[in-house]
Amino acid sequence: MHSIAHFILEHDENSRVLYVTSEEFTNELIETIRNGNNTAMSKFREKYRNIDVLLVDDIQFIIGKESTQEEFFHTFNSLHSAKKQIIISSDKPPKDMEILEERFRSRFEWGLIADITLPDYETRMAILHKNEEMNGYSISEDVIKYIATNIKSNIRELEGAFNKVMAGAKLEKKEVTLELAKQALKDIISPDEKKVITPEYIISVVSEHYGVTPADLSGNKRNSKIVMPRQVAMYLCREIISTPLKNIGKALGNRDHTTVMHGIEKIENELQNDDNLKNTIDILKKKINPQG
Predict the structure, then answer these.
(1) Counting Cβ atoms within 10 Å, is residue 81 exposed (0-12), middle (13-18) or buried (19+)?
(2) Under a CB-based contact definition with an 8 Å cutoff, are residues 205 and 284 in contact?
(3) pTM here?
(4) Pick from 243, 217, 147: which is nearest to 186 by CA?
(5) Engineering a disulfide at 57: which of 21, 24, 25, 95 sits with its beta carbon 3.0 to 4.6 angstroms away?
(6) What phi and psi, each to the nearest 5 degrees, are found at residue 115?
(7) Pairing between strand 17-21 and 53-57?
(8) Phi, psi of 37 (to 5 degrees)
(9) At what angle do helices 22-35 and 275-288 cross, to 10 degrees?
């Protein structure tokens, strides 16, 4: 999506291009509705309708959110009527979105549907070598091949696995070996098994979503950028797989069970009044367990 936006701007620097995730769109709409005045809503609509190209990432996360769907429907119609461009991404084609309203499905199918296939082995190897080169690392070919062979879902997860191995090596102050890579990725690489949701897997998904690392959540940093994702991870470990407090604490840097309890209660209390947090938790649950 970012590549498309950059391409458009390179060819026409005057184009008004706006990229947004469905989560950002929803949270911004929530804030606008909360303000409860026409001026705020007018500004919101002007922002999204007075542009040349709108790119919305992970559109599947607006399904089931009535106000968001309604606003996006009218935004879509407004841009389409003005002959502007709309580019959306999703984890599946419109016809496979079972609970998507028909009016959305038909509109999503008006344009060109491009299936972005999974990167093949050679491409995965090239991506990992590029990461190695850009970061100034020197890693054995066995490690690169191990990651490329076992991580096939998407480039984001591939790069996340690479970063997890490097973070593990730095944390333990060890050389990057095949054994270290297997240990670092044991919770996300299960070649012949259905993916099991573990506290470590939940922590990795939450970390990626908030743009931090699992090591950050397990460490001692106490700034808001780290504390909130850490508490969200605690809450989701308890909520999704009923992990005992002691085990959650162990997965997050050997924290005391009372610290974990406090973190979970804080998220539970904030969920009472914070619609943005509710939306984020909902999206994280879908990311962690799409079939749930």
Answers:
(1) exposed
(2) yes
(3) 0.64
(4) 147
(5) 21
(6) -90, 110
(7) parallel
(8) -135, 155
(9) 160
- Compute φ and ψ for 181, nearest 5 degrees: -65, -40
CA 232 to CA 248: how far, in whole Å? 12
User: Tens digit of pLDDT for each residue in 26-47?
Assistant: 999 999 988 878 889 999 999 9
Structure tokens at 32: 């606008």
Residue 95 DSSP class: G
144 near 129, Cβ under 8 Å?
Answer: yes
Q: Which two tokens stand for residue 238?
A: 């308890």
Tell me which DSSP letter residue 21 carries. Answer: E
Q: What is the DSSP string of 120-181?
A: -HHHHHHHHHHHHHHTT----HHHHHHHHHH--S-HHHHHHHHHHHHHHHHHHT----HHHH
In angstroms and rounded to an integer, the radius of gyration of the C-alpha atoms of the chain is 21
Q: Which residue has the tokens 């993916």?
A: 195
The one-letter amino acid code at 148 reads: A
Q: What is the pLDDT of residues 7-29, one digit of tens each?
A: 999 999 999 999 999 999 999 99
Q: What is the C-alpha separation between 274 and 22, in angstroms, rounded?
A: 17
Please answer whether residues 219 and 227 qualify as being in contact, where contact means their C-beta atoms are separated by less than 8 angstroms: no
